[in-house]
Amino acid sequence: MKTALAEKLPAFLKKGPNSRQIIGNLFLICLLFQVFLVSRFSPLYYLLEILFYTEVILVIWSLVKNARKEVLFLACVALIFVVRIPFYLQGNGMIITSDNALEALQPSEIQDSHTAPIFLLNSSGHNGTLKYLFTAFVWDIFGWSYLSFLLVQLVFFLGFLYLFKEIFGKIIAGRILFILMLAHFAFIEVIFDYSIFNRGGPYMEMLFFFGLGVLLFDWTLRSKPRMFLAFYFFLFSFYLHPTGIFLSLPFLAVASIYAFKSRKLPLFLGLLVMAAALSMSHLVYWELAGAKPPPSGDWYRYILISAAHLSLNQIPGYVASLGQHFQTAFQGLFNFELSFSREFFRDPKIWESILQAISQAIILLSYAVLLAGLALAVRRLLAVRKRGLGLKDAPSLLALFLFGSVLAKMFILSPKPFLEPRHNLDLAILVVLCYVLVFDVLSGWLRRAAWRPTAAILALFVFAGPHYFYFLKVAEFKKESYRQIMPVLRDNGVKFLASDFIIVYPIYFLSQRQIAVTDTLGPVTINFFYPELKAAVDRIPWDKKAYLFFSDAYYRADWHIQKTHLFQTRILDRLEKANIPYRVVKLEYYTIILPAPSRLRNTS
What pTM did the predictor assign? Predict the structure, then answer.
């Protein structure tokens, strides 16, 4: 009976899902997502939610069915999750600043409206990410929480690691590949950052779809569907964040060389144009007919160096400037966030020196690996003239194209303030690729002694120590600060609050949008986030809203402390001159001014 029943079952149910079904369903999600963005047709929300949970079931089912084949990846997942548990235990403390809170506010807005997600509520030129929509779907089932938002981010990160494994699995031995999959702990700070979402932005999603495009690309150019999907996901990654173009263009340049060599360049270009027409149509529509975001001033402005400004006698200056920018960006990959976190706390000099030495060691090691990787790439390509271009030469070609692209970007675009790790993911991927090239050469030596891979993994955790320590310390501090402020605001019936950008949107999120906020009080204010909300709160009479200031115990720059004192004094003087009763609540990290508490509670 059981055998007869099994024979009647479709092959899909007997064998479990395959990669075609998983990728096909994801492609359908992305395609409907594009329609959803343009039409804002709310019934599509429910259809996309069904497809999302279908995808979740397919992926989990596939991992269970192939658990024996995926031991390497599942072991990596377990280790990654375990070392992040202390971060996740901080819960809302992982809302490091308003950047994080603004991201998590998007799913709330989507849940309310059941319309397409708009990136940071119309504040930026690129207009939506899947992560917000997926988080809204998760919250529909499991309820609202910042932890579930972080776990959605973690899934994108694990997806990126899986793609990394699949892309390089045929080049690198399994034991060495395992080391490289754990390299994010120390080698590239920005990837560790985005795996715990220390900074805002859809960079990890962009990396995921770029990696998916690389994996799907058919180097033999025989499979038209695979090539079309690869191009589609490349361009979709660019839509999720414009920095994706600095990864996709070098890869497409390398791929076009293989297309030319195979005499299939017309097919290559034709499929690329078709994929572009489909994947970018909604973005073109949005740019032409969509609502324009509010002016962002210098926030997102790039300064282009034009031919008119170039001069031969200034070449030494250009080279020196380019070298300085490259060095700053490279070191920022490993210590930008670490430097920020160290300034946040004032630790003993000896302890700080030890952590700084560990951080500097990985920078120097990665410099050496970058140079060695590029040298290996050049050596391999010089040999191409004798033996011809093969598929195993593609990583070397990509490394050199990426290096050239990074230098060109830094020369043409004035990088200030675009020297943060998140703005240089192309350089981060270049460093990762150079580690692959170097480890490929060293793989035989590493395999001969069983202790060497273990020692390498232990070294990774040592190198990760400074970031892990300081990131966790910041999260613990933030958790305690929110534990202090939120009950006071709630117990005093605060409905309208003016404060600094750093804190207002965490409060808006943690109050589940019950406390309307504005950051126009300063000292830091950013005009283009939630402009309608800020305008509404600013219209509330100044004596009928609360004012929140950081105390001197809250770690900040000296200029911020001085301006905070000035603004606080102004508010108090204004209340006293107008004979408005008020109360000052002093906490360890905050000072709250509550004018006429009864009015605060009754104002609507």
Answer: 0.86
